[in-house]
Specification:
The chain is of the alpha+beta class. Helix content is 49%, strand content 20%. It contains three helices and two strands, in the order E-E-H-H-H. The N and C termini lie far apart (41 Å). 5% of the residues are buried.
Length: 92
């Protein structure tokens, strides 16, 4: 994209500094602001599902489940699949 500029928004989530960014010819437009807001919402949604520090997160509920079935968000299922793949590919 020729002449593209970077628009970014930084915020705290998951115990660290996070940023979402969009490149666009005109970064100060409503579509760019909507894209940045959507990226931030996704990071915040991941935090709500995957955080071990939030008692209401899916991960925390799963940990408290004591072997019982717990309904969780697809994000947690995908994170667990990725962890299992990494374990297999690295030998632990």
């Amino acid at each position: 994209m020729t002449g593209a500029q970077l628009a970014q928004e930084s915020f705290r989530a998951m115990g660290t500094e996070c940023a979402v960014a969009v490149t666009a010819p005109h970064p100060a437009t409503a579509p760019v602001r909507r894209a940045l807001a959507a990226g931030r919402r996704e990071v915040e949604a991941c935090e709500q599902v995957l955080s071990r520090f939030l008692p209401e997160s899916d991960l925390s509920r799963l940990n408290r489940g004591g072997g019982e079935w717990v309904t969780v968000d697809e994000r947690l299922i995908e994170a667990l699949r990725a962890a299992l793949r990494a374990r297999e590919e690295t030998g632990g």
